[in-house]
Amino acid sequence: MRKPALFAATILGGMISTSLALAQVPPSNSSPGEDDTPPSAAHQEGPGKFGAPSPYAPQAPGVNAANLPDIAEIGIDEIPTAVPQRDANPAREDWPAYGRDSNQSRYSPLDQLTPQNVGQLKRAFIYHTGSKPGPGQQNKWAAETTPIKVGDSLYMCSAMNDMMRIDATNGKEIWRHKAGVKYHSIPYTAACKGVTYYTSSTVPEGQPCHERIMEATLDMRLIQVDAETGKLCEGFGHGGQVNLMQGMGESVPGFVSMTTPPPVVNGIAIVNHEVLDGQRRWAPSGVIRGYDAESGKFVWAWDVNNPDDHHQPEPGKHYSRGTPNSWAAMTGDDALGLVYVPTGNSAADYYSAMRSDKENAVSSSVVALDVRTGEPRWVFQTVHKDVWDYDLGSQVTKFDYRHADGSVTPALLVPTKRGQTFVLDRTTGKPLPEFPVVEKPAPSPGPMSDDPRAPTQPYSVAFPRLSFPDLKESDMWGMSPIDQLYCRIKFRKARYLGEFTPPAVDKPNIEYPGYNGGSDWGSMAYDPNAGIVIANWNSTPMYDQLITRRKADKLGLRPIDNPHYDPSGGGAEGNGAQADTPYGIVVSPFWNQYTGMMCNKPPYGMIEAIDVKTKKVLWSRPLGTARANGPWNMPTGLPLNIGTPNNGGSVVTKGGLVFVAAATDNQIRAIDLKTGKDVWSDVLPGGGQANPMTYEVNGKQYVAIMAGGHHFMMTPVTDQLVVYALPDKAQ
Predict the structure, then answer these.
(1) How much is the pTM?
(2) In this structure, is residue 38 part of a structural domain?
(3) What is the tens place of the pLDDT at every residue in 130-178?
(4) 290 assigned to some structural domain
(5) Out of 292, 389, 451, 520, which one is annotated catalytic?
(6) What element of type H or E holds 154?
(7) Number of domains in the chain
(8) Is residue 192 part of a domain?
(9) What is the chain's percent helix, strand, coil content, to nearest 5?
(10) Any catalytic annotation for residue 389?
(11) Which of 211, 587, 616, 626 could form a disulfide with 227 if both were Cys (CB 3.0 to 4.6 A apart)?
(12) What does the CA dihedral 605, 611, 613, 615 come to, rounded to 10 degrees?
């Protein structure tokens, strides 16, 4: 009777692998807060103190990667009227945007592939991007790329921002633009989720740069090239490039970066960026900016702590520091003139006492910005005073919701790491009446008298939750009774009051869902005809503890702009210096550190189909097998579908199929939309932590997935885009 449990335990590898990547815990013979006392108030640094270096210091060499001149401003009335873009009404056979269409639905109307014939799917070709770690380079690679397809070509980016056009039928490279991003500019992850296809409203059809490919880079540039030739669009910015470090103040390479395709809304290209977590309270700004998609000139900024100033900072000044950043893909809305921005925390994720009221009002939220002015039209917050790293990592999805009386509301689907999915009216940001949001009591004020928690938190009470119930000591689990006992002891040593257990110095707290729980960068897929949402999600608790500044120093936790910074000592995930605050942070998975097994029982990853109209789960099942996973990070080869951690999303088709990779078993699979059962799978050469896509050329349907792997998930890293199709005789 023990064998099934033991086999189930071996999932573990994916989970383990993730755990190892998450932990980054320097060895210590004592618990994080042991023998330390909280610092006095005198050690706390307020907004008037930056610590070091000064925010007015010149930017370090390499921050303005191409040594580009400053960009000028342009008035909104000078922006030419935009022509309709490809993603507004995609050709049936195309995939012209990151989520296929301007709704970011990840739905394709193609139906050549069905549950009946998908089992005959074979590899059509493999394309190599050429981007992977070189000799002596730390593995930070995680491509996360979804190609776009227009006409007979695929357009994509490598993990290090080279842009490519390839033949969609055979993978032959037509052109490549070398972006020249340097290794030292890689932040936590070398990733490029995709590029933007843009049609000019000023350059005539048939002329160079009428059709353009645009990307935002790891070293903070906005680049446009001609879609036909790959040559820089000289009329955009300075020779085809814009320096997005302008106005950002002091920084170093890798502190801020961009990994998502910028949306273009009514002729305005909107850019966001990630700021490396855990470094310092006065990190570079999380400002959101709009640029003229034709000329590259600056139009507006939304700077949280300077809400009335939408201009670029004057020389010697900078955007307000430490404000919530947005690293997830944004969604544009031409009809309403809005861009929906998923935000994260202010800098120093696990300590909120130094945040302004303006920051607290917009963190971990969806903010609808007016694309003409940069002014927020509405804000919907998913977590109040977030100190759990519950930033919004998912791109939101637009859809039209039909009420019982036949009326239609333009709606927004908002996934979260909490597993709560909010359904909003996208004109107002209010929850739809059919999907009410209730404020429920949360553990408060908490043990940190200087940083009390919010008394309530928002819950979407009608939409099925993507999470399991709160943990119990009896849920503790392991490969043997000794392992289970170890986890029970660890559970008892921690503070756990359910969701939103506050972090503290005196003892660890269990965070569940963890910061990689629920939905992350893969987002959701939505079939608008069937009204079905496809969601894959994680169930991986974390073990957190604030530590005094003295302890943080002892552990060698220093911010990235410190000359003695050690990348192995902390980063975007795991331990963080949180400089300029009284406390550092130690974060690890809630696991048995000796076997690398999670302390909560599997599954750790799920996928399910939800009927939006009835609010019912149509099917739900674990996602990911134990074949590439096991204790001590040893693959078992077992095909047991026990549910591994997963990152990356799905695509749903008119043919009745769901394609998804994401899990740490390094497989892509086709799932029957009606039954939830696998009807085809293939082992990839690397991890599939990206969103797949599908397209058609000359009557043949293809499915593509970037098998680039992921250092965070500890799946094999490659430079391979794998593309599938039916053999000619099977069509």
Answers:
(1) 0.93
(2) no
(3) 999 999 899 999 999 999 999 999 999 999 999 999 999 999 999 999 9
(4) yes
(5) 389
(6) strand 153-157
(7) 1
(8) yes
(9) 10, 30, 60
(10) yes
(11) 211
(12) -50
